[in-house]
């Protein structure tokens, strides 16, 4: 049963049958791998490609914070994504006598990279690939207009020997004219003009017969050309009908060059080295199984409900709601929530009591948790101001990243507005020696938000959203 639990599943929406099919993630990686690169590639190149495929799938998966399938909200991805990939049985013919061996090779590439994905800023990247780059890959803005930090141009001499390095396509002029909306040909064909460097110095008689002509710099009589080229008259003309376009490389040049990757693998580079070469600044990590029921096991958190006690300096809303009470209530729900997720949780106060800021800092520093989270409600002199603000101490990228996840979750679940994740120099942010955030859930001075905070259900919702943000923060760590 334990082995079963370790598997990760992806939900695929089959539009034709209008139903969701659940498949093992690693099986789908195999199917896509067989289709996307030649199986004759070096093992490390196959491993690199497996990690790329898995990254792109995980990026869509809802359990990992992906957006899921546009056509069916319950699913992760549409079956159209796998449309061109054939079931593995179909390779019996394609791989002829080698089927068993290649299938095993495929299995090794996927199993040895099981769970590995490419992350940038702790999120799965959009892992682009192309067959052959032709000398260098592209900057994202050169292809799609927007700057993606990990899709930077890198030189690639690795794909030069590939079968697709130089290519050409012959396109009829008419087609070029039509597709580009330009005019290239002349209608009066019997008065054809010279073509630079090819045909010059044409002399015709009054009937249009060619007397003399220079082709490729050499002079000919009209009759000579007629005989040598076996055309039926000296009253001839010409017009180019095709343009041959030469191309270096194959594909848009974004991300990893697949033939380059194979050459690097053949010269001893590992899958990880290859991926880090083509994707700038990324990390390769194994994802955690989302079905584990205790995603925050071994995490220690200190939750700090702001203010408290008789002499409290907290804010009061227009309808009489006290900030200290809301803070405590959310903190208590959050404690339950986090404990259920496996975390060890401490509160700086569990009742309506006064605890000095200094004592809160001492407590936090004694425990040395993974995070210290202060919970407050905001206040402004004008009642119209609303939304969530989150503060962190300057330079603490880890706290900022947690803040971002909590912000997203609160905006989604409590429907608050994102009013920013900002730096601040508050006493506790400064004095607590571990990563800390100060959360202003909503504005108690805004009558609508005050009313929202009065509802027990919404405090629970806020607590659940904060917990969800924490789980999301840890999902790849
Ligand atoms: Zn290349
Ligand atoms: Zn406060």
TrEMBL record:
Keywords (A to Z) from UniProt: Hydrolase
GO biological process: peptidoglycan catabolic process; sporulation resulting in formation of a cellular spore
GO cellular component labels: outer membrane-bounded periplasmic space
Protein name: SpoIID/LytB domain
InterPro entries on file: MurNAc-LAA_cat, N-acetylmuramoyl_amidase_3, SpoIID/LytB, SpoIID/LytB_N
Domain MurNAc-LAA: 361-471
Species this chain originates from: Alkaliphilus oremlandii (strain OhILAs) (Clostridium oremlandii (strain OhILAs))
Phylogenetic lineage: Bacteria, Bacillati, Bacillota, Clostridia, Peptostreptococcales
Signal peptide per UniProt: none
Tree of life domain: Bacteria
GO molecular function annotation: N-acetylmuramoyl-L-alanine amidase activity
